[in-house]
Structures are given as C-alpha cells and as structure tokens.
Amino acid sequence: MGRMRPSFPRPPEPRFVPAGEHPLWDEALATVNRDLAATLPGQHPLCLIAYPADADEDERVYVALADGNAHGNALQPAGSADRALWGIADAAQDTITGCLWQVWPVCTLHGLGMHLAKQSGRPVWSCAGGGRPGDPAHVRAAVGELDTVHRPHRPNRKRRKDGKGR
Fold it and tell me: Which residues does the annotated region (Disordered) include (predicted)?
C-alpha cells in the first residue's frame, strides 16, 4: 500500500476578459496597444486577464501579454478615461518589463526608458533626457501617440565605401 500524498488546493485559473466587460479599460488598452505596435511591431497586443475573487475581495484584473502572462499589480477601479489610461499604461509597462525583460517604451532620441507623467492632465511618455547640459528631460508623446520604432545606435557598424552604411 502506497503512501498518501497531501492534496494542495490549486490556485484559481485566470480568465481572459472579453471586450465590453470593462469599457474604460478596453478603450485605454486599445490606446496603449497603438504604442506597443509602433515600438515593438513583432509583439502581439496586450489583453486583460482576471483572477477569480476570494471570499473577501473582488476579482483582480491585470494587463497581460497575449499568452496570459502578467507582471505587477492588479488594476484599480477607474472613475475616468484619463485614470483608466494611466492605470493601463503603467500596468502595460510593468508587464512588458517584467515578462519580456526589456525596457519599454524607449526614447528614440536618447535610447533611455521612458516613464509616465502628466501634461495638461493627460498621461504622456516622458524621457529623463541625455544627462548633459542642453539635453533636458522632455515629453516624447502622449500615451497612444508613439509612432516610431527605436533603432539603437551601432557605433561599430561597418560603413560602405560610399559612406552610406550597409
């Protein structure tokens, strides 16, 4: 007769949140996914996943990669579109950084990771600047309006004889 193994409860399974369940978050996620598509064109759009509620709390919703992996804190209820956009952008940055191990989004001028800031009450992506006098911090774009892919400078890249690169 074999030994009995203890039975441990399985963690609750998350579910993908269907469109329309959280309209403010859906709209904000579509906006952030525009930035993702512009800056990481090979990456699938982000989505929302939810973990079932415990007896004493509500269901927890996270911004996740298309495969359901997420990183960071659960989203907080959003009372306005700007608050929803801020929460989704912040959570998206946490998930991309934590799951893909890469900085996102990156300033195309300085090659530095950007952070959320507010300008005229609207969430924007802000860069700390180049760290030299005359190269100050700046707002790169409003969230949802990043439009270029960051291509890192390659100082050791071989040049063609005509001086135009490869």
Answer: 145-166
